[in-house]
User: What shape does this take?
Amino acid sequence: MNKSSEAVSGTAANERVPAPTIRVFLALAPPDDAKEELARALRPAYETYPRLRWNRIEDWHITLAFLGELPVTTVPPLIPPLAALAEQRPSLRLALNGGGHFDERVLWSGITGDLEGLHRLATDVRALVKECGVPFAERPFRPHLTLARARRGDHSAVAEAAAGLDTFTGRGWDAERLHLVGSNAGRGPGPIHYRDIEAWDFGHGSLGQGS
Assistant: This one.
């Protein structure tokens, strides 16, 4: 007597295994010395508000387009058109400046410099992703660098830490690379970690780092 497919596989015959996914976004990253400059300005806040969920300095970035959780198979087709876009763009002169918060929940540092070019880049990146057939929830682009998040029920620290950055003015730097980034968000306890899937120099073709 033949065994059913359910008995053989241990699952119902019509039950599908979920396709693997990855959380993806496109971003710019400040150079190390600009990040270290901001980190020095944050030292009093690190000591005063240790319960904030501080982002690792290695993961600081300026998000251009958050694509959300995508099937891994949708990512490779994005790479050639994004590489072509980066090759056609100049670098952007930017700086980290001041601080603020979103609803006393998210602490951020502001961005100054070539904001017109930055907005144009974000618009073009988002349009390209849509042209590739990848849908995502589009939010208004508000240039910032996320530093920390409040724990539930403990929001006052974010506003106080933001006030401590009011006078911070970072040095200017050139944003020279477009980063396609994946994260482990939602995949277990512990901090969110990010890694480059690919990254491209503006105006100099692809220097992909691989997945």
In short: The chain has a mean pLDDT of 87.
